[in-house]
Input
Amino acid sequence: MDPALAAQLGEAVAEKVLRYRRDASGWKICREGSGVCVSCRPSAEFPGSLYRGEGIVDAAPERVWDFVKPLPGSLREQWDENVSSFEVLQSVTDTLCVTRTATPSAAMKLISPRDFVDVVLVRKYEDGTLCSNAAHVDHVLCPPRPGYVRGFNHPCGCFCEPVQGEPNQTRLVTFFQTDLSGYLPQGVVDAFFPRSMAGLYANLQKAVRR
Output
């Protein structure tokens, strides 16, 4: 992928995800418990929903980031039950790359394995927040593969934010707006994302404690 195009796309995605973080309007809580709140609102990108998760993880932001970063050396597939494999297709800079993420079947196998190809840009903000930003791209090194339905991530990301006065805690705010593709009942999709996002927080907390 052309590095200049990757950079342009990455910056555009990061600006959108930052706007999601700052915009508190229109969210409807769809799952809440164990210190995690998942809310949603209609997506402006596709005929689906934009999901937001928020919760406190008991570890410093740098440690949490090591477990969630979508970069070379990612630990995601070691703890996230919704990630079966992760690979970097192209490293543009140390904060910009193109990745492929594969997911296993889910929802009692109603959702078959998916894969996603994304441009990913990492940002660090002045307050110490670490943020990943991603969205679907086509890449010559990764055409659709047998055994997987190609899904599409519209602008999504996560924020590892310091908690004032609590150096060993991180406020993790996540955004997902994913088109799973294929022929899926809408009820299955609507139930899957809040449940899987809540599970992400629980599994991440277990992972950082090890």
The radius of gyration is 16 Å.
